[in-house]
Amino acid sequence: MLAGIAFFVALGFGIVIPAIPIFARSFDVSALAASSVVSAFALMRFIASPGAGWLTDRFGERVILATGLAIVAGSSALAGLSQNFGQLLILRGIGGVGSSMFTVAALALLLRVVAAEQRGRASAAFQAGFLFGGVTGPAVGGLVLAWSFRAPFFVYAATLTAAMIIALVFLTRAHLVEEEAAVAANESPTDASKTAELVRFLRMPAYRAALGVNFLNGFVTFGIRAALIPLFVIEGLRQDAALSGFAFLFAAAAQALALIPAGRMADLRGRRPAMIIGTVATIVGMSVLVLADVVSGQTTLGTLLLFLAMSILGVALAYRSSAPAAAVGDLMGGRRGGLPIAVFQMMSDLGSVIGPLLAGYLLDTAGFSWAFFIGAAVSVVALLVVVRSPETLHRSEKT
Q1: Which stretch of 42-46, 178-182, 250-254, 369-373 has the lowest confidence by average pLDDT?
Q2: pLDDT digit string, tens, across residues 363-397
Q3: Helical residues (DSSP H) of 217-270, grouped into ranges
């Protein structure tokens, strides 16, 4: 059921993501301002994450998951009706609150019910739901975007409504009763002890490595890539906007092909090797994007390099997505941990806030090459953090 929900969320997101910076630009704003629409969504996710963690512990994953989806669906439909840049910015921010609730609740549910030796593959299966939607969404998004800048927002609202119905009708908590009873003795009874537990987590190098990789996910994937690729296609390569949708399709397809091997590697060889592969591939992918801008005057070569870079970044995301979440699940040990999961998610959101703003500023002042280069630089820092961290999957659990 989580995979089905993820499919509909990703389907709509893949349709709307190429439209966001282009729709924002239609209000005659700068690249920095257009990028801020992506950042506003991520900023509100970041701010709302601690509250989402508390609500998940208080009311349960299913209720918070469905409520979050309803908020994103409603705000997306209204965003499609925006008459000015300010309305679009505010409504995307409201959507970020609902998105935070959905993401924290879904991940909390997944990590609590899956055994340690299967967390990598379970995370990969959950990501597969996103990917099946992600493979379909960008291609459909390119066609919808060619029709209207507003239409993708309404399609996104419809797919989120479908996801909400699945959560309300089919996703029950019955199968969690035994797991909850088994770990009840280890639950943190007060907010104070939950805060102390978070401090303990923050002192763990493995947890900090997971946070660093998740920050990179937000910074590159939901930040730089989402904000700049549609603009690079139009302003750098001088191609039709629909091409950006197909570029995202290539990235999603490459990620889909790599996801099962990535999850299996995380379970058999450990979380740390998978994160190392993911960060190294990100460095390579962002470097190819820099080269694509250098040769952008040669449209055919620049386009080929764009598709190559997006494919590499898709593979990188497959390794960066499942392993960090599995590492956090290892450290939680089956306990309910809305706050550590919320902080884990906040790092991705923080990257999604900083990435588009920094990339937009560099684009306005120095061009696409420097905006892409900063993604490679942050990837190097994340790689160093991961290399210095220990493995969280115990040898006895590797089967």
Answers
A1: 178-182
A2: 889 889 999 999 999 999 999 999 999 998 874 44
A3: 226-231, 242-268
pLDDT of amino acid 307? 94
Cα-based angle 189, 192, 198 (whole degrees, multiple of 5): 95
Q: Which CA distances in Å does 163 have to 151, 169, 217, 321? A: 19, 10, 23, 21
Spatial CA neighbour of 211 closest among 187, 365, 219: 219
User: Residue 199 and residue 380: Cα distance in Å, rounded?
Assistant: 26
Q: What is the pLDDT of residue 172?
A: 64
Contact 308, 87 (CB under 8 A): no
Count of domains observed in the chain: 1
Q: What is the pLDDT at residue 335? A: 65
As a whole number of angstroms, the distance between CA 282 and CA 163 comes to 30
Q: Residue 263 phi/psi, 5° resolution? A: -65, -40
Two structure tokens written together for 89: 């910015």
Identify the CA nearest to 339 among candidates 212, 187, 183. 187
Looking up residue 244, the CATH number of its domain turns out to be 1.20.1250.20
**Of 379 and 18, more confident:** 379
DSSP string, 144-173: HHHH-SSHHHHHHHHHHHHHHHHHHHT--S
Cite the DSSP H helix spans in the chain.
2-16, 19-25, 31-59, 61-79, 85-113, 119-147, 151-169, 177-183, 191-202, 205-216, 226-231, 242-268, 271-294, 299-332, 338-365, 368-387
- What's the domain range around 268? 2-397
165, exposed or middle or buried, with CB in 10 Å at 0-12, 13-18, 19+? middle
Rounded to two decimals, the pTM is 0.77
